[in-house]
Amino acid sequence: MQTFERDLRLEMLNSLLTTPHRKLEQVADVHKEMVGMDPIFYGHLAVWYQRSGDVRDHKEVFVGNLLASDLPEHRDAGFVLLQELPPYQVARVVDFLKTLRGKLPRSARTAVTRYLRKREADPAFFDRAALRQRKAMKHLYASLHIPPGARADAVLFKDTPPPDSLAHVIKAVAKAETPAEQARLIVEHNLPFTIAVGAVSKLTPTLLVALINAMSPQEVINNLASLKKRGALDHKEVKALIDQKIERAATSDRVSAYKARVASEVADLDAETQARLEKVTDEQVKKRGRITKSTALLVDKSSSMENAIELGKRLGALISGIAEGGLTAYAFDTAPYPVKAKGDTLGDWERAFGHIRAGGATSVGCALEAMRLRKEAVEQIILVTDEEENTSPYFADAYEAYQRDLSVAPNVIIVRVGNASTWVEQKLQEKRVQVDTFRFEGDYYSLPNLVPLLARPSRLELLLEILDTPLPERDDK
Amino acid sequence: MSDNDALNRVDLCFVVDTTGSMGMFIKAAQRHLLDAMDALRAGHDIDLRVGLTEYRDHPPQERSFVTRFHAPKPDLQAMQKAINALKAEGGGDAPEAVFDGVHAACGEMPWREHSRRFVLLVGDAPPHGARAHERREEAPEAEPAGGRGRRSRAADLCPCGLTVHDVTAAAESRNVTVHALCMVADAATVGAFTAIAGGTGGACAPAQSADKIVGTMGAVLEREFSSLPFDRETLRVARGIGEPDTERVAEALGCPRVQAAASLARLGKRGFLDALSAA
C-alpha cells in the first residue's frame, strides 16, 4: 500500500469512526467523499462495518451507496447486505436513496422485491415482520409499487388478516374477556411487547409476566422505561423476571452495550437494576475486543474540561474491562493526579474520579512526565483533552523525554473534547509520532468505536483487516 | 451569607480596547457591554458583579496606561456609568496590549469565592506578537527562569513578554472563561481572539454576532443556574453524607445517577466540594 493511499484510507476510517450518528445528512456527505476518494476500499469498508460497526445510520448509507454503485460487485454486496436488515432499516435505505441521492436504482428495487417475496414465502417470518414493523413494510410495498401477495395484501392493506396470522391473534387479544385469556394468547403466540401492550386495556401482573416472557433481553432493556411506567418494577415476581432477562443480556450476542447504559441513565431505575445494566454493558464491550497493549489514559481536568472528566470515567470503564496489558490512569491540570479504580465498572470509575474537579491551567505533558519519573512504560496513550496546553511541560516535549528514558514509542490516540485545537497533534506529527484522533461530540454511543483501534497494534493492521473482508456474492444469479 | 447562597454568584469582567482605533466602534462596544449586562441579569436569578479593564498599549506607542482596572461598584448602575464614560484615545501602532488586558483582568478582578467567572474581551486589533496566537513558533532554546511559557521570536513578542499561553493559563487557573467580541474581521485579530477564548473553553464572534456571544454566555448560565434548587439539594445531601459519592447522592435524592453526577460536577468546578474532598 502506497503511503498516500494508506493516509487517505486512514482519513476515511477516521471520518467514519468520528461522525456522530442521527445526523444522516452529515453521514451521507462523509460517505460521498469516501466513495469518490477510493471506491474499492469503500466496498470492503462497507462490509466490514456491517459486521463490526455500531452506528445504524452508517450501515444504511453504506448499503444504499453499494446498491447505487457503478461496480457490479458492489451492487451484489449491497443486495446481500440489504437482505440482512430489518424492515425499518430497509425503508430508511430506500428513503436515503430517494431523498439524498435523488434516485432509486433498479438494483435497489430488485433487492427490496426479493426481500419482500422471501418473507411472503414464509408466513411466520412475514407475520412477525408485519406485526413489529407494519408501517415500514407497507411503505416498502407502496413507495416502490411492488404488488403484495394475497396474504400480504390482506394483512397489511385490507385489514382482513387470515385466522392463522398473528395480526388476527392481536385482534383476538383485544377481544378476550379475561386477563388470563389474554396472557394465554400472548404466551402461545409469543407476541411482542410493544404490539401486545397496545391491545390490552389493563395490565395485570399476570399479563406483564406473559409479555416479559415473550421479550428478548434487548427488548427488555429498550422498554425498561415503559415497563417501569406500567409498574412492572414494583411487583416482586415481575421484577425478578426482568432481572433474569437482564442477566441473560450480558451473554447474548444481540444486545447493544450502550443501549444498556443509556437505558440505565434515562429510565430512573433502582440501584440494583442499574448495576445489572452496567454489567450488561461491560460484558458486551468485552466482546468487541481485547487490548493486549499496556495503555495509559490521561484525562485533562483543567478549568475548561468539565466534560472531559465525565468522558474519562466512561472511557476508564470501557477500557479497563478489556485491557489485558494493564491500564494506568491520570487526570491532570498543571499537576498529575493518579486515578485508581478498584474495579472495571462505571461505578468504580465514578468513585475513582470522585474527587477530581475541573480547574486549573493546562499542562498536557505533566502526567507523562510523572510516568517517566515513575518508569511506567506503556505501549499506547489515550489523551482526553482539548489540546489547549498553556503550561510546561508540553506533551510533545514530555513524549520525547519519555521515549528516550524508557526506550518505548507509544502510539497516541487523542480524544478531542470541546472547542479543541490541533496543537498537540501537530507537534507530535512533527516528531513523527504515530498519532490518531477521535473527535468526541457528546455521543456516548460512539465510544465503542474506539475499541477496534485500541485492540490492534496499529491502524495499518486495521486497514489490512478491512481490505481482507470479502464482498458477499449473490446466490441467486 | 452562607456559601449555599453563593450558588447564584456570577462575576463578569469586561476587557475593552480603548485606543484611538476603537473610536468608530466605541459606541457599539459600549452598547454590547450594556446589553450583555442586561441579558445576564434579566434571564436568571443571579447575583451579578461586574468589573472593567481598559487596555491600550506599551510605551513608547502609548504613555497614558497599558491597562486600567475599574473595580466592581456596589450597584450596577455605577458600572454602567463607567462603561458609558469610556473614551478611545492613543494607541500608536496597530497591535495593542490585548494580552496585558486579559491577564490584568484575571489578576485584578476580585473574584468571589464559588462564583461563575467570565471575561468578555472586546477589541479591534491583534495583540503584539501577531503570530504568537498561531503557536507555531520555534521551540525556545531555553525556558526563562520562572518562565512564562514558550517564547516566540523576540520581534513577535509583546513588550512585556506575555504570550497567549500565559493569558489562558492565568484565566484557567482562576476558573475564568474568556469570551471575545471582535469589532473587525481581519484574520490576525480574529485568530488571536479565538485562541485566547478557545484556550479557556470560551468562544469568539464578530461584533455583528454580539448576540451570539451574549447567547453563549446566557446558555452557560442557563445550564448552570437552571438547576439551582437541585444543586442546593445535592450540596446538602453530599455534606450530610460527608463525601461527594455520586451513587449515594443519587439514591438519597431519588434521581438517576447521571443527574447527580452532573450536579456534583457543577458544584465541584466552583469549589463547593473542596472541603468534602479534603476531608
UniProtKB/TrEMBL annotation, chain B:
MF (Gene Ontology): protein serine/threonine kinase activity
Keywords: Secreted, Signal
Cited InterPro entries: HMCN1-like_VWA, Thr-specific_kinase-like, vWFA_dom_sf
Pfam families: VWA_4
Keyword Oxidoreductase: no
Hemicentin-1-like von Willebrand factor A domain span: 12-129
Region of interest: Disordered: 128-153
Gene Ontology CC entries for this record: cytoplasm
Record-linked Gene3D superfamilies: von Willebrand factor, type A domain (3.40.50.410)
Name this polypeptide is given: Hemicentin-1-like von Willebrand factor A domain-containing protein
